[in-house]
Amino acid sequence: MDLSNYVPSSSTSGPPVIWFSQATESLCARISLHQPTDRPAAPCVLSYLNEGGANFVFRIQPQACQDPSMQLHGRVPLLRIRKDLSHVQTGEEQLRSFNQHFKPLFPEQNLVEHEAVQLDDQAKNQGTATDAQENCPLAMISENAHDRQRAAGATTTDKRLRDYLIDDAQPLLRTLKENQQRFDSSGVLGNVDDNALYDICKAMSLRDCTLFLKHGQLGVEARLSDLDLKQPEKLDKWRAVEEALINEGWYQNREAEEVWKEEKVCLFSI
């Protein structure tokens, strides 16, 4: 979710180490990097929920069982598994980066915390993702209430979540925007020294995070997740994408005729 004014382009062996978001009292979990979960084995089905460039996210669906001690109760967790790609950090490294670089930036109640666990057996799963509705992230924090209403309506059909995004979510979203700008105020095309590159990696991570919303009897919970520190090796890719967006006219809605369509989403164009 990129809310900054500058809009950028956006093999292991053995059992995989994953992130395990254990929601017992809320969406928050106790961090346990070195200790395994104390939950007993329970029958469950994993269903595909989402994915990014580095991780898959699965929903855990408890299944009925005869032994009460093995039954999952309460709010069930999400399972986050790294992709087997050479540039993707291990689960431990992802969790360490989250705690060091991103956890201090936001209130605790607005972050999904994680627990690192190890699976006994590797498994494969197959799923299908759905297309998201188009909206401009900048509209979500616009001073104009109509812009926010339109962006929230393109994000969810749930009225309680729409109302939350329009009003109560604004402090969190503005904090996200401010940190995106703080870590990268000028983009990737200029001279980038080591210190600037380190900050750009943080900014890119903040632009690629996920906001989870959940409503219940006490209102709406909002927590940020997928805050994995981007790696400096991606700088050349970011530059190439940014140059292509500029040179091919995508920012000005002047792209090639065969792919052109009137811009109706970007806040700068309407």
Automatic annotation (TrEMBL):
<protein>
    <recommendedName>
        <fullName>Inositol-pentakisphosphate 2-kinase</fullName>
        <ecNumber>2.7.1.158</ecNumber>
    </recommendedName>
</protein>
<comment type="function">
    <text>Phosphorylates Ins(1,3,4,5,6)P5 at position 2 to form Ins(1,2,3,4,5,6)P6 (InsP6 or phytate).</text>
</comment>
<keyword id="KW-0808">Transferase</keyword>
<dbReference type="Pfam" id="PF06090">
    <property type="entry name" value="Ins_P5_2-kin"/>
</dbReference>
<dbReference type="GO" id="GO:0035299">
    <property type="term" value="F:inositol-1,3,4,5,6-pentakisphosphate 2-kinase activity"/>
</dbReference>
<dbReference type="GO" id="GO:0005524">
    <property type="term" value="F:ATP binding"/>
</dbReference>
<keyword id="KW-0067">ATP-binding</keyword>
<dbReference type="InterPro" id="IPR009286">
    <property type="entry name" value="Ins_P5_2-kin"/>
</dbReference>
<keyword id="KW-0418">Kinase</keyword>
<keyword id="KW-0547">Nucleotide-binding</keyword>
